[in-house]
Design brief:
Blueprint: E1 2-7, H1 22-38, H2 43-48, E2 51-52, E3 55-62, E4 71-81, E5 85-94, E6 97-107, E7 109-110, E8 115-116, H3 121-129
């Protein structure tokens, strides 16, 4: 499991003065990049290796409005590591309020052909280290730090 924090910026809000829902997917991708960095493999290095990790499936429950100036704490857990894909769970909190929870599937691809590749062992080891089960796999986070 990986945790990080994101400050909600003015540009994240819509006219209703709440975070515009697609911004959550941007936040989740930012967390994914930070996850790589925290493991000593900066995300941009995968591109130099000819790899990319596009999302192929996404679902999200938006539970509580998020506003400019709030600090969003996001937890990322790996639900499943397949041959070339992985399933990720995200929980986004402001204090004790669960604002959003999402599941994304990403695929390791060859940038030259855009075809799936087996996940390289150095990445597979990192993902497997962050595998989560139980309540998280069901999307039932209870409070920050419980992912």
């Amino acid at each position: 499991m990986f945790r990080t924090s994101i400050k909600v910026r003015f540009s994240d809000e819509d006219h209703a003065q709440v975070v515009y829902f697609p911004r959550f997917f941007h936040f989740f991708h930012t967390v994914f990049e930070d996850f790589f960095e925290s493991e000593g493999l900066p995300y941009h290095l995968a591109f130099k290796e000819g790899l990319a990790w596009p999302a192929v499936h996404a679902r999200c429950d938006f539970l509580v409005p998020l506003r400019f100036g709030e600090r969003l704490d996001v937890e990322l857990g790996v639900l499943r590591v397949g041959k070339s894909s992985l399933s990720l769970a995200y929980h986004a909190w402001v204090g004790e309020r669960l604002c959003a929870r999402a599941q994304l599937v990403v695929v390791c691809i060859d940038l030259s052909s855009f075809r799936p590749l087996p996940i390289p062992n150095k990445y597979r080891a990192i993902f497997e280290k962050h595998l989560v089960e139980g309540e998280v796999a069901e999307g039932l986070g209870q409070s920050p730090g419980k992912l």
